[in-house]
Amino acid sequence: MSGNPIVVxxxxxxxxxxxxxxxxxxxxxxxxQGTRFEVGRLAxxxxxxxxxxxxxxxxxxxxxxxxxxxEFSPAALLFAGVAGALHxxxxxxxVVVATHIYAFHGGTSEDDGFKSRPRVWExxxxxxxxxxxxxxxxxxxxxxDDQEPTVHFGxxxxxxxxxxxxxxxxxxxxxxxxxxxxxxxxEGAGVAQAAHLNRSLPVVVIRGVSDHADGTKExxxxxxxxxxxxxxxxxxxxxxxxTLSAEEPQQREPADPKGTPMMSDTxxxxxxxxxxxxxxxGHVHGGIRVSGEHGPPTDPATAIAELALRLRQARTAxxxxxxxxxxxxxxxxxxxxxxxxxDPQDVGAVTLALKKVRGLVGDVAALSAEVxxxxxxxxxxx
Length: 382
Description:
11 helices; hydrolase; Nucleoside_phosphorylase_sf; EC 3.6.1.55; 8-oxo-7,8-dihydrodeoxyguanosine triphosphate pyrophosphatase activity
């Protein structure tokens, strides 16, 4: 995995708080559009987590998952929460890890009934392998007070309703068309779709079983099974995040069919003295950046120093309040220190610090745009 954080999303406040308690001094991160995340490292671990609350439903989950992906460029996206079990062999408090996500509400209504037209997303092979390794290791459950839950792998059905019956039309529909689904919930399809649209970002949906979707939900809630299911899901999720963060990246030069290493996708042409460089390429894919001697700084450390000056000017002009200024200044200081002390340079950590600055100064359009340009400059180091 890269040095970028792992995004963990939840739907309910109780789920959010259960993951948050595992973070060491989480810091507020404000998205320019108002969404609030908290970012911190796992206590006694190395994983950096960007934690967000999406609320109920696949639609809001998809929108905020997309927002988190664009903002943090995460190494992986995990969703932690509760679900109703659909099979009797799954006990209350057990954990279900999705191998597939069914969006089961898709279909067409015809004269002879409703015909299913589901969408399905499959978890990536690599993420599935890591999740199974965490489950086999069993150390993830050491901190739990209760007996160690069983981890089940299988499809999860995601719709727009809370299923709490075994005899309703919806229950019959699920049994008839998705009888291999292990659990049912309301956000997994939205998260999976957002990840799919972002170059198949690794996504894992982890659910603690709080009921059996059989009409006993109020009873199981009174017996505190929701709290236990939340704790179990959070424990597995953070153990998975830690393991994903520990994975070493394997980078290799792409090869042609004959096995010969091919040219890198990035071409840098550097001109010295009075020389000029134009684009030297037959076909150009992606963006082109041309910088001159008298243009914006091309050294990240210099660019961050100039950004700090702009920050002070914005405070003096009254565009930033003192608390926002000090928080942004601290993030810039952390970015500068990381550039100076890490070898190789931890581009992910510097980028995250700068994105926090962008979130803090989002109301000042010119300053936010300048931060974005510095982020692009830093990302060019990788």
